Amino acid sequence: MFVFGPLLFSYAEFCLSKILVILADVSDKYLAQTVKEGTLDNLIMELFLWLLDYRVPLMDDGSQLLKALNVLMLKILDNA
């Protein structure tokens, strides 16, 4: 669990909030195209590792996390 002020988040909820921030950035085509290639390579590699990790579906909200990771990957491939 993560504690941010009075709020408690599970690890999956914490990851989902970060994914939404990245998703907002890569959804903007202009902004997505300004990301350096090395940064994109690192992000895509991390996404693949998360998508292939057998522990993710076992987490609370793991299925939502997988859906968000898939959407993020598609947006990156579309816009970057």
Q: What characterizes the major β-sheet?
A: 2 strands, antiparallel
Helix count equals 4
Structural class: mainly alpha
Overall, the morphology is globular
The low-confidence runs, each spanning 5 or more residues with pLDDT under 50, are 1-7
Number of domains: 1
Number of strands: 2
**For the largest beta sheet, what order do the strands appear in spatially?**
1-2
Instruction: Give the end-to-end Cα distance, rounded to a whole number of Å.
Output: 33 Å
What number is the mean pLDDT?
A: 81
Rg for CA atoms: 13 Å
- Helices and strands, in N-to-C order? EEHHHH
Q: What is the percent of helical residues?
A: over 70%
Portion in strands = 5-15%
Short description:
The chain is mostly helical and 80 residues long.
Describe this protein's structure.
- Helices cover 70% and strands 8% of the residues.
- The chain is built from four helices and two strands.
- It has helices at residues 11-27, 29-33, 37-52, 62-79; strands at residues 2-4, 7-9.
- Strand 1 (2-4) and strand 2 (7-9) form a beta hairpin.
- It is globular, with a radius of gyration of 13 Å.
- The protein has one domain.
- Residues 1-7 have low confidence and may be disordered.
- With 80 residues, it is mainly α.
- The protein has a two-stranded antiparallel sheet with strand order 1-2.
